[in-house]
Amino acid sequence: MAAAAWGGARLLWGRLRQGSGTLPGSYAVRVAPKQYLLQNKNLMWIQFSLGTDLHTVFQSYGNMPLVSISDEPDTLYRRLSVLVKGHDKAVLDSYEYFAVLAAEELGLSIEKVYEPPRKIERMTLLKSVHIYKKHRVQYEMRTYYRCLELKHLTGSTANVYLEYIQRNLPEGVAMEVKKTKIEKLPEHIQKPIWDTLPQLFPVSVVLDKICSHATPVIVDGVTSEKEETCKGQKTYYNHQAEGFPPPPPPPPPEQLGNLASDYFLGAYPALGKKLHGLNRTATALGR
Amino acid sequence: MAALLCRQNWAARVRVSKGKKLVTYEAAHPPHYIAHRKGWLSQHTSNLDSEEGAAERLVEDVFIRRFLHGTFVGLLAQEPVLKRRANVLIICLVLFQNIAPAKIYFLAAYTETLFSHFYKCPVKLEFQTVSSMLVYKYLCAPGPHDWMKKPLPSSASWNFPRL
User: Fold this and answer.
1) Min Cα separation A123/chain B (Å)
2) Which of B44, B49, B121, B125 to mutate to test the interface with A (most CBs of A within 10 A)?
3) Strand A76-86 vs strand A119-126: parallel, antiparallel, or unpaired?
4) A chain contacts of residue B51, beta-carbon cutoff 8 Å
5) Contacts of range A214-222, beta carbons closer than 8 Å, 24 or more positions apart
6) DSSP, res A3
7) Do B44 and A166 touch (CB under 8 A)?
8) Does chain B have fewer CB atoms within 10 Å around its N or its C terminus?
9) Contact B72, A38 (CB under 8 A)
10) How close does chain A come to B93, measured CA to CA in Å?
11) Does the keyword Ribosomal protein apply (chain B) (predicted)?
C-alpha cells in the first residue's frame, strides 16, 4: 500500500516539479502557487514530531526513479473528509492550523473546517472495594473533534496530502478519513431502455392506459397508492425533469387493448381481468 | 472549589505528614487538574470515542512502568511519559546523573531491545539527565519533638534525600 501511495505521489509530484505542461491530457492538473513544499521555509517549524525521523516526507531513495508513469487514469474524489479526534482541544487547534496550512500550500481547495460537538463518556463507580454503596466516584472521558473537508482532489494528491498529514499526527490523536469518489456511469444505464428495444411498447404508455380506465382500487379498505400516481402525472416516469429523451407518441387506442393483454399483462392475467369495475385486487397482488 | 470538596478524596494526592517531602510538579497536582494544569503520562488513542484497545494499552503501560522502575533503580526523577504514535512506542525519561553515562546508555539500549521484542513494534527511548531533583513543592510538617530542636545555623543543611 505504501509503495502504491508513493508511486502516485511521485507521479504527480515529479511532474509538477517539471511543470504542468509535461503531464498528459488525461490527468487533472492543479498547479499550486508554491510548488515546492520542502523548500518552503515557512513550513519547517510546524513539524510536531520532535527527535524522531517519522516526519521526513520525501526521502531520497537512491536509485529509485522519482517519477513513475501509469496509463490508467487517476481516481477523482469529490470530497475528502478528515475527522480528527483527541482528548486535548489545544492539540487539535494546532493540528488544524497545520493541516489547513499544508492544504493551502499544496493548492487544495478547502470546502469547510468545522468543529463537531464534543462527546463526554461519564462513569459512576463504587469508591470502595467492598460495600459502601453510597460513596461513589465519577470519571469522565472527553473526546473533542475537528473536521476538515477538501473538495475536488485527484487520487495522487489525496495520497500525498494524507501521507503527510498522517506522518505528523500527534500522539493521542486519532483520524478518520472519508473519501467520496466520482465514477463514470456504467454502460448499461447510460441510455434509456426504450431506445434500445424498439418493438416493445414503452411501459409508461401502458400504465397510462391502465390507470385511466381503472376505477379506484381498494385493498382491504385502504386506497392504494396507484390511484394517486396515475391521477397526478401524465407519464409514469418523469422524463422531462431528468433530461431523458421524450417517449415516442402513444399508438392509437384500438391497437393497445390487445397488445396490453397479450404482452404486458401476460405475466399478470388476474390483474388484467379484474381492473375493470370494482374489484378487490388482494388476490391479484399475490397475497 | 474542587479543593474544598476533596477533603476526603485520597486519589493521587501527596499529603503532608511527618518528615520532609520533595514533590515534583506532576505529583503535586491532584487528578482534577488534568487537562487544566497537568498533562497525561500515557498518550494513546484507545480511550477516545469509538476506539478500541484500551485494556491492552493499560496492561502494556503497567508492565512498562514496572520494568522501568526496576531497570533504572533510583534514577527516575519523574514518572516516565509513554507516547504511542502509529505503532511506535516512545518512552520519555528524566534521569538523575548518579551513574556513569556509559551505563545509562547500556540500560537504555537494553530496555529498547527488550520492549521491541515483547511488543513487536519499534520502541524509542528518549531520555535526558538532570543533576538534582526538580522540586515544585516542599511538604514539611513538624513532628512531636521538633519543638525541642534549635534553629539551624545557615551553613547546615537538612538531610533531604538526593539533592
Assistant:
1) 13
2) B49
3) unpaired
4) 85, 174
5) A214/A275, A214/A276, A215/A276, A215/A277, A215/A278, A217/A275, A217/A279, A217/A281, A218/A278, A218/A280, A219/A280, A219/A281, A219/A282, A219/A285, A220/A280, A220/A282
6) H
7) no
8) N
9) no
10) 14
11) yes
- Contact at 8 Å (CB) between B141 and B17? yes
Q: Report all structural domains of chain A as residue ranges with CATH numbers, in order of start.
A: 76-185 (3.30.70.600)
| Residue numbers of chain A with a pLDDT score lower than 50 | 1-14, 16, 19-57, 214-241, 259-261, 263-267, 272, 274-287
Which CATH number, 1.10.1200.10, 1.10.3720.10, 2.60.40.1080, 3.30.300.20, labels domain B21-139? 3.30.300.20
- Convert the pLDDT of each residue in A241-264 to its tens digit: 455 566 667 666 665 555 444 544
Residues 36-95 of B with CB under 8 A from A: 40, 43-45, 47-49, 51, 83-86, 88, 90
Domain borders along chain B are 21-139
Q: What is the C-alpha to C-alpha distance for residues B38 and B32, in angstroms, rounded to an integer?
A: 9
Q: Chain B within 8 Å of A53 (Cβ-Cβ)?
A: no
